[in-house]
UniProtKB/TrEMBL annotation:
The chain crosses the membrane at residues 34-54, 66-83, 89-112, 124-143, 149-167. Residues 181-201 are annotated as: Disordered. InterPro entries: Na+/solute_symporter_sf. This is Uncharacterized protein. It comes from Halomarina rubra. The lineage of its organism: Archaea, Methanobacteriati, Methanobacteriota, Stenosarchaea group, Halobacteria. Keywords: Membrane, Transmembrane, Transmembrane helix. Residues 181-191 have a biased composition (Polar residues).
Length: 201
């Protein structure tokens, strides 16, 4: 998490002006917004966690819930305020592009995730789920065009709509596999016990 955040703070201000050559973007303003709103709070949280671990453990669940709730409320608010623009995205090809992008990066994450299936699954889901919070910070503080926020919200909805069912299906299959393996091991153990008893007799 810390490595990803530091990479985001360094990477986004450098790359964003290159991929948006026709848009006036201030790299320093982008870096400042990410540092102030994300990197500094993260650093403070890590220091508190190291120095006051008991307090950190007690507050972690509450703060996680507050953070997730705040992000959800922000997304809902942006959807409500820009509902007409969001509906206007339908049929433009933007949703298809987002779906293709999520599938593509998730696929790359799975392929490059290493030899273990568990690692590949985590890598795929992590690659497919972009950092919406950081993107919203950059968009809100550096772009006046409301369509930028609209596309970010649409992208967040598309990502959740694709990755959450996928994660749920993977979880269900893993549970079934573990249950089948456990049943097989119990059956093998019982069979071995019976053979041992017969040999003893």
């Amino acid at each position: 998490m810390v490595l990803l955040m530091v990479t985001t703070v360094v990477y986004v201000p450098l790359v964003l002006p290159l991929v948006l050559p026709g848009v006036a973007v201030d790299p320093l303003a982008i870096a400042r917004s990410l540092v102030v709103t994300m990197l500094i709070p993260l650093t403070i949280g890590l220091l508190v966690s190291i120095r006051y671990s008991a307090v950190s453990n007690a507050l972690r669940l509450t703060l996680n819930q507050a953070s997730n709730t705040g992000l959800i409320l922000l997304l809902v608010l942006v959807v409500v305020l820009n509902l007409e623009n969001i509906v206007g995205v339908i049929g433009t090809g933007a949703i298809l592009a987002l779906v293709s992008f999520v599938i593509l990066v998730a696929g790359f994450g799975y392929v490059l995730g290493g030899p273990k299936r568990e690692t590949r699954v985590v890598s795929a889901l992590g690659a497919g789920q972009r950092n919406v919070a950081a993107a919203l910070v950059v968009a809100a503080q550096n772009f006046a065009d409301p369509d930028v926020l609209v596309m970010l919200v649409v992208g967040a909805v598309v990502m959740l709509g694709l990755l959450m069912p996928l994660a749920g299906e993977i979880g269900r299959r893993d549970v079934k596999d573990e249950h089948a393996m456990s049943t097989s091991l119990r059956a093998t153990s019982k069979s071995s016990t019976r053979r041992t008893k017969m040999d003893d007799e």
